Every structure is written in structure tokens, then in C-alpha cells.
Amino acid sequence: MPPLSFAEARALVIDKVRHSRRLPAVESVDLAAADGRVLAADVEADRDYPPLDRSVRDGFAVRAADVPGTLTVVGEVRAGERFSGVVKAGQAVEVMTGAPVPDGADAVVMVEHVRVAAGSVTVDQPVARGQNMSPRGGDAVTGGVVLRAGRLIGFPEVAVLATVGLSRVPVYRRPRVAVLATGDEILDIESKPLAHQIRDSNAWSLAVQVRRAGGEPVVLPTARDSAGETAHAIAAGLQADLLLISGGVSAGKYDLVESVLAELGAEFYFDRVRVQPGQPLVFGRAQGTFFFGLPGNPASTMVCFEVFARAAVELLGGWAQPRLPLTEAALTREFRHAPGLTRFLPAALSPDGSVVTPVAWSGSGDVMALARANAFLVAEPDKPVYAAGERIRVLMR
Ligand code: AMP
Ligand code: MG
């Protein structure tokens, strides 16, 4: 298989998962717990919004044809009230923001633009019909779709759900994502590793990444680099909705993940991508479950999750549109890299997002440098030199 570019590989992941995913089961949650969940049904307006013509200013409801002129004030209407009469020629009603515009009136003049005397109000400028009012049904009409299924719920969506009176919200179940670390040298974090051993960090960072993408991580015991143990662990992981394997996909003699997957009947969509870190990334499907073989270096695992696997978790969770939080910032200094690969390198993005500085690191195993950074700069494969001050893409995290 020829290696794919970053864009090709990401597009392929999205295409494969979108076209053969089974949407998760639906459950319902309290509105207060809906943040971060994915809406599982279209939501319709239960009535017109606004339900009546509504004033958006404190002022006077008038008939536009009467203005400019001096009008008789025949009443007042507060938010939460309705005016029982009708505004007739030569009349005005004082209205507050949020109050219904009385029948007969067709515009509101702001209180700042009138002169008030006992029992009357004088307007010196003409007003257009509809001015300073929000017409009935202008935001949504009864039965109209106000939120589509597949939408990630955040605070504005919660406001919409509250507005239409949904205290229980249909959401997709979180997809179960198996996380499998591999490697003879990998110990669990309670262990005291010998000099030739390391503690597992990937299963921990992946579990966080999965949760942030809306998935439910299921961390499996670390598999030793033997075909039998790897096969057993992978078979268990394929029971989940998605399997993430860390390590064992490079060209080493004990990188067994691909051969074990092949024996389990896997279909491989790619096994190399022109990105760094993460070139030997593997993506495929076995026994109906998509899997990623993520290269084990912590930076490779993190980056490959963010730019490839995350989209799969989101789609399997029912999201309509996976996201990739890219921005652009000016480099604080010149940056060079060898052309040919899209590079995602640890970087410090300024708090206002305007400038970015590469963070020194010793390579994709340098987990400490990743924690000194707060973003990844994205160096394009066909652009070896970026001048100081030049804009570069940045992947936020
Ligand atoms: P591999 O992809 O298995 O060749 O591993 C590449 C590098 O990543 C090696 O230096 C491993 O020790 C390291 N590594 C692999 N798995 C983990 C893990 N779960 N946590 C931390 N480092 C790991
Ligand atoms: Mg390994």
C-alpha cells in the first residue's frame, strides 16, 4: 500500500466510518447532564418563537403612520403581561423589553428617542413598521426543526432545549472504545520499573482523549509482545465499538500487531501515512470493528489520535460532523523542517492565539516536552522553511 498524505488518510477514515457505522443506541438524560452529549433526534419548536410580536426595547408601541407626532399614552405593558385593548390612531402604549406589542401597534420607539409629558409622548423622527420588535415566529415557527440529530450539545443547545421545554433529552449512548497498550517493556503505573522498562502512559492519555471525543474508554491489560497474547487481547478489544492499539506497528521484529490483525481477518485501509510523528499508523476493520494501530511513542499516539482516531470516535458517537480544531498564528521565529511529511510538533500558542513558538523536544518519545507545549504546529510537507512572523497552522488541544 503506498503511504497516504495526511489529508487523504483523514478523509479515508471519515469516509469509511461514516458510511458503515451503526448509530449508537439512544438513551435519555436530564437536561442538566446533556452538555457534551450528542442529540439523537431532531428537536422541533413547540410553538412560534417569539409566540407574539415582542418589543426588544423599552419605549412606546405606536402606529408607524402616526409618527412623527404627539400621541396619547393609553396604558403600559410590562414583560410578562398583555395589553388588553387595541392601540388606535393617535395613541401609544408604554412597553418594556420583552413585553408583547399591543394589537394595533406596528412599531416601537425607544424611550431614549421620545419626549414624555403628562399623558402624552412626542416622537420627532419617523419610524419604520416593525422597528424594535421581534415578530411572532421570526426565530422559529411551530413544528420547525430547531436542532438536528447529530449535533453536539453545548450551552447554546441547552438554551434551545430549555426554551422548547425538553427536560429529558434523547442522546446517543457513548461508543465503547477499547484501549490496548502493547510492549514487553511497558509496566503499569504502580510498578517500579527497572532501567530498561517504562510505565504505561499511552493508555492513560488515550483514555482522556477518548472521553473528550465523547467515547467511553475501556482500558485492557497491557499485552506482551507475543503473538498469542497480542491475538487474545486484540480479539477482546474487537468486542468494543472501536479498538485503539498502542505500539507494535513499526518495522521491528517484535512489532506483531499487523500480522495478528491479518490472521484475525482484518481489512487494512492504510498502514503508512506521510505524517510525523506517526508514520506507521494503521487503520482497518476486523470482525466489523474499526481499529487503529497507533505507533507507541507518546507523541505519535497522541497526534494520531487527535487527527485520525478522534474523528472515528466522534462519528461512532453519532456526531454529524467530526471536528479538527485548527487555527493559524504567526511564528515567533524561523522554522525549518525536512519536506515530504506533514509534521505536528509541540508548540506554545500565546494566550490570545496570535503567536506560536516551537517547543524544543528530543523526539516523539519526549512526553515531558508535550506537557510544556499547549498545541501542535502543523508544518506542511511542501514548505520546508517558514520565516519568523509567517503564519503557520496550529492544531489546538
Ligand atoms: P513501538 O511503537 O511499540 O515500537 O514503541 C515505540 C516507542 O514507544 C518505544 O520506545 C516504546 O517503549 C514506547 N511506548 C510504547 N508503548 C508505550 C506506552 N503504552 N506508554 C509509553 N510509551 C510507550
Ligand atoms: Mg513495542
What best-fitting shape do the alpha-carbon axes yield?
elongated
Number of strand segments:
28
- CA radius of gyration: 30 Å
Ligand inventory reads: adenosine monophosphate, magnesium ion
- What is the mean predicted local confidence, pLDDT? 97
Number of helices: 7
**Biggest β-sheet description:** 6 strands, mixed
Approximate strand percentage: 25-35%
Widest beta sheet: strand line-up: 7-4-6-5-9-8
* Uncertain residue ranges: none
Q: Termini distance?
A: 31 Å
Assign the structural class, choosing from mainly alpha, mainly beta, alpha/beta, alpha+beta, or little secondary structure.
Answer: alpha/beta
Portion of residues within helices: 10-25%
Topology record:
Blueprint lengths: L5 H15 L5 E5 L12 E2 L9 E2 L3 E4 L6 E9 L13 E5 L11 E4 L3 E4 L2 E4 L9 E2 L10 E3 L7 H9 L4 E5 L3 E6 L4 E2 L10 E2 L2 H11 L3 E4 L7 H11 L4 E5 L10 H7 L3 E4 L4 E2 L5 E5 L2 E6 L3 H19 L9 E6 L3 E2 L5 E8 L5 E4 L8 H6 L2 E5 L5 E2 L4 E6 L1
Parallel strand pairs: 5-6, 13-16, 13-17, 14-15, 17-21, 19-24, 22-25
Antiparallel strand pairs: 1-12, 2-11, 3-10, 4-6, 4-7, 5-9, 8-9, 18-20, 20-21, 22-28, 23-27, 24-25, 24-26, 26-28
Helix pairs in contact: 1-6, 3-6, 4-5
The structure holds adenosine monophosphate and magnesium ion (MG).
Adenosine monophosphate (AMP) binds next to helix 3.
